[in-house]
Design brief:
The complex is a heterodimer of chains A (about 475) and B (about 110). In chain A, about 80% of the residues lie in helices and about 0% in strands. Chain A contains 20 helices and no strands. In chain A, helix 11 packs antiparallel against helix 14 (about 310-340), helix 12 packs antiparallel against helix 13 and helix 12 runs parallel beside helix 18. The two termini of chain A are about 25 Å apart. Helices cover about 80% and strands about 0% of the residues of chain B. Chain B is an all-alpha fold. In chain B, helix 1 (about 1-30) packs antiparallel against helix 2 and helix 2 packs antiparallel against helix 3. Chain B has one domain (about 1-100): Helix Hairpins, CATH 1.10.287. Classes of the chains: A mainly alpha (about 475), B mainly alpha (about 110). At the A-B interface, helix 6, helix 7 and helix 10 of A face helix 1, helix 2 and helix 3 of B.
């Protein structure tokens, strides 16, 4: 499964470009690829294993599929599917759809590689593949704001990359190899060595910059809010979560392990992100900017859960990554629907859109409730797990903070819902209609996932989340 | 002989952070967007030197060689994308000043 999921996107890109096919063909090919990706997790015999055997005769890569990577593969494919459909509603030209499909395939080669890899240098290469594709995706329309947001992202993310490379060199110096297992042994053997400490610190800081947690968040709002509508879904739903947070989980879990200092760093940055992200989200006037800051706040929860330092905390973090991917892409799809139908994203210019766009309004309300942690939606269970993990690890103060900060989440999302969808209908919006079927269908699909995962969460936990971290 | 190697090793270990800091300093202080990219390249060169030195002193230069070549390829791709950004920004504003890309707030 592993190698074929990395190579098929690359082969598809070559096939689509030589000879150059139409944008529509590329679009359907990529949608088919996403469906195949989900299928290949559940049914390994739908071609992925046979292909992997064929490719494995030519290439050898240090890759291996485990429970964690399966969760990421599924959520990445769902978010990619939805974001491509959303992008199509905004693509006036065939050539734009063609570039979008190709770039999305390339970033999927990166995502699949990143979640399977067991080598720190390979990890860096795949992170750069994803980053390169997303720099282009952000500024696809060459709008002023997008160029600015994308350029900031490029500069800050490149600095993070150099920090990670620096630490890779130091790891190589001490361990003599770049595999996870060898570095992990070296860390165990010479844990107190200042070179190793510097390497671990630089690598974790680089990943935190890429994940956009609070002291390093300045690029995130610009990149998310100025990107084209469909790309925002992709960026907010999966890119920063795989590049920053999933890679962090991998490194912490398989390479460095948890010690007191790392836990403190994670707890403090996580708590800061939750609180400051929520406070800044309240003050924003742009629909997508509110979502971007809420993303910072939710990433804070994930980092806080990692800070508990137990396998239970890692499970909670993974579950929240999945839930966040679903409800955040649902919210970005709805912001795209609002943008398409009204041509604006200024929160103050709306009001009463719920009468005109009932599906968008209803699904947003459910996503908000899930994000704020109201039962029985999926977000409630992952937040509950995070709080339980913190409490059982002995960080009661941080657990209380996580509960209180949920109220902040509630506050900014209720304000947003009220300003945009409830209240008096703004007379200027008299002629607005419900969004096209493709967008509402995506919203309903993601909404059904949020409710469904919330209702059958014991099954999800027992089959996917807990086995992935080796509990039970 | 051992002393010489150790001296060389320390030299590399000092050079790499210096290049790193020079790059960061360039990015922070400059007002020219091309100079920012040059700053990143300088940092990147520091890391390349460190990786090459790490391979040499570990006695595994053949392991490091492909890593460095891969790094250079990735670096060039990122460089091309930033060049694309710079071309588009200059087309829009007709200047290389950072002030043009400092409008987003919050």
């Amino acid at each position: 499964m592993t190698i074929s999921l990395i190579f098929v996107p690359i082969i598809l890109v070559i096939l689509l470009n030589i000879p150059r096919l139409s944008g529509k063909t590329a679009y359907y090919a990529v949608l088919a690829f996403f469906i195949w990706q989900i299928l290949s997790v559940f049914f390994p015999f739908t071609g992925s294993q046979q292909l992997a055997g064929l490719i494995g005769k030519v290439f050898t890569l240090n890759v291996y599929a485990d429970g964690m990577s399966k969760i990421m593969i599924i959520s990445a494919a769902i978010v990619g599917f939805v974001s491509l459909i959303t992008s199509k509603a905004f693509s006036k030209y065939d050539s734009r759809l063609f570039s979008l499909s190709n770039l999305m395939l390339l970033s999927f080669a990166g995502i699949n590689g990143l979640v399977f890899t067991k080598d720190i240098f390979t990890m860096y290469v795949f992170i750069e593949v994803i980053a390169a594709a997303s720099y282009i995706l952000i500024s696809l329309d060459k709008k002023d704001g997008a160029l600015e947001g994308g350029f900031k992202y490029l500069i800050i993310s490149s600095i993070a990359t150099v920090m990670m490379l620096f630490s890779i060199s130091l790891f190589f110096l001490t361990a003599g190899s770049t595999g996870f297992a060898e570095i992990s042994t070296a860390i165990r053997d010479f844990g107190g060595n200042p070179v190793i400490l510097a390497a671990v610190m630089l690598f974790i800081t680089g990943l935190l910059i890429k994940g956009g947690v609070i002291p390093f968040h300045s690029w995130l709002s610009g990149a998310y809010a100025e990107a084209p509508a469909g790309v925002s879904v992709f960026l907010g739903g999966i890119i920063t979560k795989t590049v920053g947070i999933f890679a962090l989980i991998r490194i912490l879990y398989l390479v460095t392990g948890f010690n007191e200092n790392i836990k403190m760093v994670l707890l403090i940055t996580g708590a800061l992100s939750i609180v400051i992200g929520a406070i800044m989200a309240v003050t924003q006037k742009d629909f997508k900017r509110v979502l971007a800051y809420s993303s910072i706040s939710q990433v804070g929860y994930i980092v806080l859960a990692l800070g508990a330092g137990t396998a239970f905390g890692v499970a909670a973090a993974l579950f929240h990554v999945f839930n966040h991917a679903i409800f955040k892409s649902l919210l970005f799809v709805n912001s795209a629907a609002v943008e398409k139908q009204t041509g604006s994203l200024d929160v103050d210019s709306f009001g009463g859109l719920g009468y005109k766009m009932p599906v968008t309004s209803g699904t947003s309300a459910i996503a908000f409730l899930s994000a704020a942690g109201i039962p029985p939606f999926a977000g409630f269970w992952s937040k509950l797990l995070i709080i339980l993990a913190l409490w059982s690890a002995g960080y009661q103060g941080f657990a209380v903070l996580a509960v209180v900060a949920s109220l902040f989440t509630m506050a900014y999302f209720l304000t947003l819902q009220k300003k945009v969808f409830f209240g008096e209908l703004n007379p200027k919006l008299e002629n607005v209609r419900e969004a096209p079927l493709s967008l509402t269908a995506c919203a309903i699909f993601l909404c059904a996932l949020t409710i469904g995962v919330g209702l059958i969460f014991p099954y999800i936990l027992n089959v996917f989340i807990f086995p992935a971290v080796g509990i039970m | 002989m051992i002393g010489d190697t150790l001296f060389l090793f320390k030299l590399y270990l000092i050079t790499a952070p210096i290049l790193f800091v020079v790059g960061i300093y360039a990015i922070i202080t400059t007002r020219n967007i091309i100079a920012m990219i040059i700053g990143i390249e300088v940092m990147m060169k520091g890391v390349t030197v460190l990786l090459a030195a790490a391979g040499y002193f570990n006695g595994k230069p053949q392991v490091v060689e492909p890593l460095i070549i891969t790094m250079i390829v990735v670096e060039v791709v990122i460089l091309m994308i930033s060049a694309g950004y710079i071309i588009n920004i200059v087309k829009k504003h007709d200047s290389l000043d950072v002030a043009n890309i400092n409008k987003l707030k919050g």
